[in-house]
Known about the structure:
Largest sheet: 6 strands, mixed
CATH topology of the largest domain: Molybdenum Cofactor Biosythetic Enzyme, Chain A
Low-confidence stretches: none
Structural class: alpha/beta
Oligomer: single chain
CATH class of the largest domain: Alpha Beta
CATH architecture of the largest domain: 3-Layer(aba) Sandwich
Number of domains: 3
Mean pLDDT: 95
Number of helices: 14
Amino acid sequence: MKISTLSIGDEVLLGEIVDTNAAHIAARLYDNGFKNRRHLCVGDSEPDIMEAVEELAGHNDFVIATGGLGPTVDDLTARAVARAVGRRLVLNEEALNHLRERYRLMGRELLQSAEKQALLPSKTTLIPNPSGTACGFIVPHKGCFLMFLPGVPAEMKRMLEDTVIPFILSRAKRTGFIGTRVMRVLGLGEPQIENLLKDLARPREGVDIAYCVSFPEVEVKLRGEGEDHARLDQLLDVVAEKARERLGAHLVAEGGETIDSVVAALFRRKGVTLSLAESCTGGMIAKRVTDLAGSSAYFLEGAVTYSNEAKVGRLGVPAELLAKEGAVSAVVAMAMARGVRTTTGSDIGLAVTGIAGPEGGTEEKPVGTVFLALATGGDCKAKKYHFNWSRDRIRTMTAFTALDWLRRHLMTLPDREVET
Length: 420
């Protein structure tokens, strides 16, 4: 089964926006057992769109295209496709009725120029758009089903799930299965991970291992292909278990989980609370914690104490300690962690202080020097790191390292007893 994708739009071709649509479609196809064979990108040029349609239709069973279905003059997809497949461009009554209803719900007047979105090639199958104005459409050509979706990501994703993937599944002749296990690793580089896992690959049995850097993590993907679905799943499970053993505590998340969601689940399971004192990260850790719904059950407060005065006034760090050791030091990080824990009454207080750059470093404490500290009822510990990257990457790595500290600490705690 041959499937390819096509992105249409000058803004994508010229790099003005990142083409997340193509990546999402390829990933969802793979999740459903299909590989994206090829991807093309063309601008808002009718001849270029026609050429891409002709080329892809001649070598694929399905083509999924996004972009160029809007109301403006540069939205040329429908007209170009009609010319490419030799059909008339007609006013689709179903698409027009959809437009009218969407504008009514938005409380806006449907201008005549906007009705352009209902001009589609004749004899096409409409793809409903529950989230927007422009419907998609499916047209057969050269034995290939050409499927066109809007470029707005939220609309495209809904239409892909509701119509496109079910359409492909209902017509695809599947002779094999694809399986994937995804693992997120922190604290090890690609070469180190490959050295640990490379002998686990079983290419003769259809299982390979791929590595992809998603800073600051490395994604390890166990990929399998085979004709027996049950046997493939069993084989991937065996390889995944061996990979877990070798990666140990560096394995921070699996499947669709992230380090953020793993830490959140641990907080709920352990029944403890958290407060944060951040300096160089400027609230990045608190944002990651609170991005997840339900964090109010365990996250009490986050303090961004950027200046020395804030560290003294908000956290109770002794001024003489700051004068003697400097804000970027283990003892100050520990005083920050203890201070935020005491003032908020949380079970855990975590603090970060460092030099993110590009200025402020010294020979003794160069840019990238970071101290983390974690305080609990009976203990407080700190550790020094040096991250040799740009300012943004230093801050990101610090936030991930802090979350990993929380993850590892929480794993040592007993689960909360729930009354029954």
